[in-house]
């Protein structure tokens, strides 16, 4: 039986801008501490979650005692620790390398979980960690947890965000475990059915079969549902030099209505944030050459541009996986950004955020480069929420619906350059090595 209404507590490791933090908050958790070593990402996280503690520090230099001391956790029993150790060393998109130094961060995730001793843990990573030699890292992680008194779901699953209400095909591994004495959570069942899914049944003259249960699920919102109400940014000259403007939105879909906070969502337990519903943010325009725009215009929806290989979104389909690119110490490479389904241009950060299930009040860095990286590196909140609900169920509690409402005011946190962010976060050394430019 579920106990009285309360808010369980959590810790987010490798927090980034806060996709998993938000998803767990929406499920009913208070994420009292979040650790993020990039000072720009940490500052954005602090902006969006001003009522909790953001610790700007590498997990390699962090201890459970420090996390407890710097936050409101103290000596309380933590309900869940979650996080996605940087995954580029395992990614199917690049050169998978077991010796990549980023892979060692998985071991630090394990160390901090064992140090903090939560009831549950959730580790997110790319599908590539389940394939080939990379699987050794995953199995070693599971074995370490089991040796230290944790149960682990050995039937680990790769979940597609499109099955949980996100208009984007994005597959990620989730490894779930719990302390002895607790029941292992189940993986969330699909909540939605991706649109335009072709039947695998062969044509037959036999009588029609009853529809499968999955066909009774509501459809995943498509690209039109996600961004169809956002006015065309090229109509606003102000967006050439800043990232916000006051607009009249179009008629929203139910999905967009939720992200615009126009409808009440019964199972959303997040704290309310104040924001102006006529404000369009994170929408700085991208300048394209006439040649590029002509190529984009000639690219059919659902196909890729022949030169840039940018994918053009289809209003009736899903977005492809939004990727992050690389940090400055790894070349500062920009990942391909989808082409808008109607206008021959790349989508804006806000449009990407909609396709990732971020609400409109959630803010990103004012530069396109950092904004897209923060989205591409994050877990879609609705996917994180689906996983977090399973933890809530295993805890056998009913989350408390918060009455508090917060204003997000200090926009300076969204505008820092790296040196400014390092100074604000009181870092004594460079958090990330600067890119070396060729002379």
TrEMBL record:
Alphabetized InterPro entries for the sequence: C5-Methyltransferase, C5_DNA_meth_AS, C5_MeTfrase, C5_meth_CS, SAM-dependent_MTases_sf
Region Disordered, residue ranges: 187-211
GO molecular function terms listed in the Swiss-Prot or TrEMBL record: DNA (cytosine-5-)-methyltransferase activity
EC top class, as a word: transferase
Biased composition (Basic residues): 199-210
Annotated EC: 2.1.1.37
Gene Ontology biological-process entries: DNA restriction-modification system; methylation
Domain of life: Bacteria
Reaction catalysis annotation: a 2'-deoxycytidine in DNA + S-adenosyl-L-methionine = a 5-methyl-2'-deoxycytidine in DNA + S-adenosyl-L-homocysteine + H(+)
Keywords: Methyltransferase, Restriction system, S-adenosyl-L-methionine, Transferase
Keyword Transferase attributed: yes
Keyword Transferase set for record: yes
Active site: 87
Family membership: Belongs to the class I-like SAM-binding methyltransferase superfamily. C5-methyltransferase family.
Record protein name field: Cytosine-specific methyltransferase
Organism: Waterburya agarophytonicola KI4
């Amino acid at each position: 039986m579920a106990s009285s209404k309360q808010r369980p507590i959590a810790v987010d490791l490798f927090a980034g801008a806060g996709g998993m933090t938000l998803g767990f908050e929406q499920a009913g958790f208070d994420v009292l501490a979040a650790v993020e070593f990039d000072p720009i990402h940490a500052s954005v996280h602090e902006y969006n979650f001003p009522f909790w503690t953001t610790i700007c520090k590498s997990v390699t230099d962090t201890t459970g005692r420090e996390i407890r001391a710097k936050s409101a956790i103290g000596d309380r029993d933590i309900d869940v620790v979650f996080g996605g150790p940087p995954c580029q060393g395992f990614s199917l998109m690049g050169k998978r390398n077991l010796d990549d130094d980023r892979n060692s961060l998985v071991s630090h995730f394990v160390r901090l979980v064992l140090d903090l001793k939560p009831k549950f843990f959730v580790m997110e990573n790319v599908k590539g960690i389940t394939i080939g030699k990379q699987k050794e890292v995953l199995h070693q992680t599971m074995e370490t947890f089991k040796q230290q008194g944790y149960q682990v779901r050995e039937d680990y699953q790769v979940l597609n965000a499109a099955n949980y209400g996100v208009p984007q095909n994005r597959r990620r591994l989730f490894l779930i475990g719990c302390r002895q004495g607790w029941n292992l959570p189940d993986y969330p069942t699909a909540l939605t059915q991706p649109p335009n899914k072709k039947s695998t049944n062969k044509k037959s003259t036999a009588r029609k079969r009853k529809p499968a249960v999955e066909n009774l699920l509501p459809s995943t919102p498509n690209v039109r549902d996600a961004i169809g109400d956002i006015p065309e940014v090229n109509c606003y000259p102000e967006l050439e030099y800043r990232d916000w403007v006051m607009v009249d939105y179009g008629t929203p879909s139910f999905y967009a209505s939720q992200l615009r906070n126009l409808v009440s969502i019964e199972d959303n337990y997040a704290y309310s944030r104040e924001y102006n519903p006529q404000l369009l943010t994170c929408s700085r325009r991208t300048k394209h050459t006439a040649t590029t725009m002509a190529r984009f215009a000639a690219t059919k929806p659902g196909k890729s541009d022949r030169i840039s290989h940018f994918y053009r979104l289809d209003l009736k389909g899903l977005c492809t996986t939004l990727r992050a690119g690389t940090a400055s110490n790894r070349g500062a490479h920009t990942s391909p950004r989808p082409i808008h389904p109607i206008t021959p241009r790349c989508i804006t950060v806000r449009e990407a955020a909609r396709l990732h299930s971020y609400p409109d009040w959630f803010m990103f860095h004012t530069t396109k480069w950092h904004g897209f990286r923060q989205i591409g590196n994050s877990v879609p909140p609705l996917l994180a929420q689906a996983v977090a609900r399973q933890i809530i169920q295993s805890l056998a509690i009913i989350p408390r619906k918060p009455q508090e409402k917060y204003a997000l005011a200090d926009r300076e946190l969204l505008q820092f350059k790296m040196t400014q962010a390092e100074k604000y976060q009181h870092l004594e050394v460079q958090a990330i090595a600067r890119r070396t430019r060729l002379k």
